[in-house]
Amino acid sequence: MGHLARRAFTLAVLSSLVTAPGARAVPRTEGPDHRPRAEMRGVWVATVANRDWPSQPGLPAADQRAELIVHLDKAVRDRLNTVMFQVRPTADALWPSPYEPWSEYLTGTQGKDPGWDPLGTAVREAHARGLELHAWFNPYRIANHTDPGRLAPSHPARKHPDWVVPYGGRLYYNPGLPEVRAFVQRAMLDAVARYPVDAVHFDDYFYPYPVAGQTFDDDDAYDRYGGAFGSRADWRRDNINRLVEEMADGIRRTRPGTRFGISPFGVWRNASTDPRGSDTQAGAQTYDDLYADTRRWVREHWIDYVVPQIYWNIGFAAADYAKLADWWASVAQGTGTHLYIGEALYKAGAAGQPPAWQDPVELSRHLTLAARYPQVRGHVFFAAKDVAADPIGAMARVVADHYERPAKPPR
Predict the structure, then answer these.
(1) Which residue of 14, 150, 308, 365 has the lowest C-beta tally within 10 Å?
(2) What is the annotated signal peptide range for this record (predicted)?
(3) For 299-351, how does the pLDDT look when each residue is reduced to its tens digit (9 = 90+)?
(4) Over the stretch 49-99, which tens digit does the pLDDT of each residue have?
(5) Domain 3-140+177-402 is of which CATH architecture?
(6) Residues 150-185 pLDDT 10s
């Protein structure tokens, strides 16, 4: 399909949709002075389990660097403007941290020096290409196994076994301990102090996703610190709220102007649980299951931006992309917190996904729909390996339909 035909198709889809209250009825590709408008066009680069980069542990430093540059160059070619680079996947580091060991995903051995500085290189090379670099941290995940003996001998989790909770086949730091909260902030802020990152980025993992038949054992911490709360759930939410508030303050103090964003699971609460929630029937709710009050963080502007992972197709019965985009737009309205939408590029063409995801136009339709909401200021795609492979051309279709011109990220 040629460019003009694609453009006509996009506008036809748009005009067939019912205009939302306060929404614009045309895609917002330019500002009033005909310059490309500022919008987030981001991609996640996941390093946990070598998901996106490096392709395998133990590659020579030059090869790792070359693979990273390929991802950055691909982002530029697709007229993206921001890279969310995972630099602390499992209580480890992709920079020379004085607090935590080098990541095993670099060399195959946790604590082994890879011979170069991935985060420093990523920041420098991204900026040289006009890309923002958001340093992506996972606050509490220690390991994707339950054997502390597999951690580097210097690992803080081995020095402080009382900080650690095994759950669901993984190890986690206990968010209910003030000393843990202080430590993980120091570890993350070290990167902010060392490098001119454009933002700090958290994903959706706070307390772990529930595992049937298992209990997250924080009894001792709750006995010590939970007395002022009406329930353990309220106490857990306060622990995560404190992390978010304190981290925001720490970022401002460490490197003023650096932003703070979070990409939570797409459903805060179902409306059947809370009338303020979304018209969904999701099996997980961040407020109740991860103890992350994501709506409050947005409404009270504790964070600079939010990227809800709306990883479902338009019309999906349990969690409709259209309904969730509308809900998040209403939450963000008037808050000062930027709303970007996390997009499940990895589902496009994937085996076992619903028929909508076998259509290369589905993702482009998401951007067309979201353009009706002034509150939606861009999109972030999961993830870099899928941007590179693009098996059914879904990303190419997004670029052709929506990214005809470059755009700067919002500030």
Answers:
(1) 150
(2) 1-25
(3) 999 999 999 999 999 999 999 999 999 999 999 999 999 999 999 999 999 99
(4) 999 999 999 999 999 999 999 999 999 999 999 999 999 999 999 999 999
(5) Alpha-Beta Barrel (3.20)
(6) 999 999 999 999 999 999 999 999 999 999 999 999
Task: Return the SS3 of 143.
Answer: strand
| pLDDT confidence band for 27 (50 / 70 / 90) | very low
Q: What percent of the chain has pLDDT over 90?
A: 91
pLDDT band at 35 (very low <50, low <70, confident <90, very high): very low
Q: Residue 290 corresponds to which tokens in the numbers above? A: 């991860």
Contacts (Cβ under 8 Å, ≥6 apart) of 365: 13, 314
Q: Cβ(323)–Cβ(288) under 8 Å?
A: no
Place of tokens 């699971």: 265
Q: Which two tokens stand for residue 372?
A: 């009706």
Cα maximum dimension of the chain = 65
Q: How many CB atoms lie within 10 A of CB 407?
A: 22
- Could you tell me which of 177, 203, 208, 168 has the C-alpha nearest to residue 188? 203
Of the candidates 345, 381, 385, the one whose C-alpha atom is nearest the C-alpha of residue 362 is 345
Mean pLDDT, rounded, of the chain: 93
* 397, burial (CB in 10 Å: exposed 0-12, middle 13-18, buried 19+): buried
CB-based contacts of 29, cutoff 8 Å, min separation 6: 36, 37, 402, 404, 405
SS3 content of the chain, % helix, strand, coil (to 5): 40, 15, 45
Integer CA distances (angstroms), 322 to 207, 284, 368, 375, in order: 28, 18, 11, 14
- Token pair for 18: 């019912």
For 88, the enclosing helix (H) or strand (E) is strand 82-88
Query: Which region holds residue 166: left if phi is over 0, alpha if psi is between -120 and 50, else beta?
Result: beta
Q: Stretch 206-218: mean pLDDT, rounded?
A: 97
